[in-house]
Write a sequence for this structure.
């Protein structure tokens, strides 16, 4: 096998590879001979089919498979020989102008960049300091009560917390738009799932009443095709129901896994769960700052191929999430360009993160992974069974290994940057948009 490496840019390379045709032809004949032992062709016993007939029937597919396997194996050997770290997937290009006794191709790809980590001493990280209070536990219990609410029909006008079944049709410039129609659609006033103007229009209406109203979609509305546009809506209220919350008693506690029905046990469990959520939230706030700090102080070129792959992945996840919400994604325009800025940030952070981990030996330790699995298992009725399930297959631990590595990196950065503690309320930290 012959190979030459050509530099096309700072990260882009073209690898030329040539393989003797005799090697390919020999592999084809070898595979055909193996296939002849089991090939089933009418008129012949298994293993007695003439090789010529096997070649006529299976030759083209075998040749295609051998060439594909040869390209992959030769490319892998060449990459190892040249000690290349390939980013993304190579683009294979055939080479027609070669010697008759050679099969040649070129592979164009990017290599991973050199990463220069910067000094973090001048970076300031703000660490939120908060705790779970009895008021936070009470607020959570009220949320749980609302989740268990029983709705009963009423004949009065719509008011806050009511569940209203409506039909609506929205138009922009007289034309209906995707996602602007609903039939037997349930809206609970105060949940904030609809625009404020929509909920305001519903307030005070009675069953059977019809109304027309208008609103302007926010400029940053998630539906880009209607963002910033003025729409007219025709609205019909079909029924109104008011919530009846369950009492906070032993039965309520049992419904949330407290077998004894003891309300103090329920409060303790809620406080523990909120504590886990709080730690994860603080970790997320720190992670965002650490990501920005590492990126702003490090020098690297981000491979375009990795950005494209990440943008595709983000787009696919966005589509899947919208489908789960019942959105008809075929009616939406979701170009990959919209996901590239986020993709580039994620790829850059991943590259820098991996370099920090490699240079400073911050890999996840088994006891760290175990602690994270145990923490997650506590929210289930049988924690030990959940822990065993995770350890039955190593790939089930991947998520926890990633989190452990991120914690190690966060701790490493906090030891080198300036850290300022900022007192915060639990509710404000967990729900900054509504605090």
């Amino acid at each position: 096998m012959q190979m030459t490496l050509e530099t096309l840019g700072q990260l882009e390379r073209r690898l030329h590879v040539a393989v003797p045709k005799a090697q390919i032809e020999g592999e084809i004949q070898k595979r055909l001979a193996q296939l002849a032992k089991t090939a089933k062709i009418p008129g012949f016993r298994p293993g007695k089919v003439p090789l010529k007939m096997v070649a006529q029937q299976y030759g083209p597919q075998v040749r295609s498979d051998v060439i594909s396997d040869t390209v992959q194996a030769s490319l892998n050997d060449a990459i190892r020989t040249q000690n290349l770290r390939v980013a993304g997937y190579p683009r294979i290009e055939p080479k027609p102008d070669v010697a008759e006794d050679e099969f040649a191709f070129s592979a164009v790809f990017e290599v991973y960049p050199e990463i220069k980590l910067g000094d973090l001493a001048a970076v300031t990280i703000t660490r939120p300091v908060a705790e779970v209070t009895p008021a936070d536990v009470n607020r959570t219990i009220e949320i749980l009560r609302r989740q268990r609410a029983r709705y009963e029909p009423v004949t009065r006008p719509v008011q806050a917390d009511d569940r209203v079944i409506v039909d609506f049709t929205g138009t922009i410039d007289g034309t209906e738009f995707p996602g602007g129609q609903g039939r037997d659609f349930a809206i609970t006033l105060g949940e904030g799932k609809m625009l404020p103007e929509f909920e305001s229009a519903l307030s005070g209406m009675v069953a059977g009443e019809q109304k027309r109203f208008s609103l302007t979609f926010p400029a940053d509305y998630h539906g880009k095709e209607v963002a910033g546009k003025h729409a007219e809506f025709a609205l019909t209220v079909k029924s109104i129901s008011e919530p009846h919350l369950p009492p906070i008693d032993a039965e309520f506690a049992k419904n949330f896994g407290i077998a004894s029905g003891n309300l103090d046990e329920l409060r303790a469990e809620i406080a523990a769960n909120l504590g886990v959520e709080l730690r994860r939230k603080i970790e997320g706030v720190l992670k965002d700052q650490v990501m920005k700090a590492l990126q702003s102080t490090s020098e690297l070129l981000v491979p375009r191929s990795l950005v494209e792959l990440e943008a595709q992945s983000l787009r696919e996840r966005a589509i899947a999430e919208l489908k789960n919400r019942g959105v008809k994604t075929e009616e939406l325009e979701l170009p990959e360009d919209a996901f590239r800025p986020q993709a580039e940030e994620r790829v850059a952070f991943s590259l820098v993160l991996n370099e920090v981990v490699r240079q400073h030996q911050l890999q996840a330790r088994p006891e760290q992974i175990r602690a994270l699995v145990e923490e997650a298992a506590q929210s289930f009725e049988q924690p030990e069974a959940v822990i065993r399930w995770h350890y039955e297959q190593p790939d089930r631990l991947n998520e926890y290994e990633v989190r452990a590595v991120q914690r190690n990196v966060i701790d490493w950065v906090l030891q080198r940057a300036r850290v300022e503690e900022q007192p915060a309320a639990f509710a404000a930290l967990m729900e900054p948009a509504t605090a």
Summary: The chain has a mean pLDDT of 91. Residues 263-297 form the longest helix (35 residues). DSSP finds twelve helices and eleven strands in the chain.
